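Lab notebook, bench 4. We co-purified these components, and the gel suggests they stay together. Before we commit to crystallization screens, I want a quick structural picture of the whole thing.
Request: model the full complex, all chains together.
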Amino acid sequence: MEDIFEFIKKIEFEIDEIDEGMLQPETNYREMEGWSSMLGLIFIALIDTEYDVTINGEELINCATIQDLYDVVKAKKQ
Amino acid sequence: MSTPFHLHNKVILVTGASSGIGKQIAISANEMGADVIITGRSKERLEETFKSLKKGNNGQLIADLQNQEELNQLVESLPELDGIVHCAGIVKPFPIKFLTQEKITETFDVNYSIQLLLMAQISRKKKLKKNASIVFSSSISAAHPHKGGALYSGSKAALESFSKVIVLEFSYLKVRSNCIASAMVKTPMYEYAQQQGTKEQMDEHVNKYPLGVGLPEDVSNAAVFLLSDASRWMTGQTITLDGGFLLGDF
Ligand SMILES: NC(=O)c1ccc[n+]([C@@H]2O[C@H](COP(=O)([O-])OP(=O)(O)OC[C@H]3O[C@@H](n4cnc5c(N)ncnc54)[C@H](OP(=O)(O)O)[C@@H]3O)[C@@H](O)[C@H]2O)c1
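Here is the predicted assembly.
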């Protein structure tokens, strides 16, 4: 799987509510301004579409940072 | 028996009977006197439902209804029917931006196409009796959609339309068709929906129900009414079951 910076770039590009440069590996994305359950759904759908990995809401909530999320996707990809 | 509130002498097919609402409808219809034929994909769970049927001459038929061959076989094995309850369904929230043909096909196949194909085959094979009653398990989200509901809400709205077409096309048989639009009901699907969001979101949602969320028997009681002759002049309608949710703040 691609590295975390590519992963971040993809999220920033695909999700209109998130601007370029807003995310770092250590960003706690659920504490970002504008976080909503809809954004949660969009994260899940983006990961489903781009990486063919299904994560659920509970797994998303258990990830504090973008790095955690990346690790979950990467682990499931293997 | 002089009251029409029973299902004696009726043969009723229930799809999605291996779980949740369909399972409870099969059990309740049987308790009210019907012979039920249950279908689902999971052999184990269908058997569990079958064991809960206490009386009468019942049947169970395994079928993945997305498989045309299995659907046809199911219809071949059916007797003539006085009632059909369509409970097979899936819920997959997905935002518009990421929809693909594959996602659309998946939900519309299970929530819409198989209901149409079943009705097509059953009627063509002349297994729909005069005065038969058809019941669809719809959702309040057909008329009150939610974000991420393009697939699910859309498929249920389509189903509610289809129910009305049945009334028109089978009027010569006096077939009735109605929908039950439920809000949140505690079933395995509920657990799945909870996983798509979070427990907190679900708790927040559930707090908006004056009567709390529904149980499968809350839906099956309404289904029994729709299947019985007590509702013989009711057709083309949707009964909303929401524990007061749509009324607004309380
Ligand atoms: N629970 C709610 O809050 C709620 C609210 C409104 C409307 N509804 C509707 O009520 C219906 C039943 O819901 P539920 O909560 O009881 O769901 P559930 O517990 O998940 O049960 C769904 C049923 O559909 C069957 N099914 C799914 N795909 C199928 C396929 N390809 N072929 C044959 N059967 C298939 C399943 O069979 P297997 O398990 O054997 O695979 C299972 O018996 C659904 O149409 C749902 O949309 C539910």
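The pocket of NAP is lined by residues B 16, 18-22, 40-42, 45, 64-66, 87-91, 110, 137, 139, 182, 184-185, 187-190 (CB under 6 Å). Worth comparing against the SEC data before the next meeting. The helical segments of chain B are 20-31, 43-51, 68-77, 101-124, 152-169, 188-196, 199-206, 216-227.
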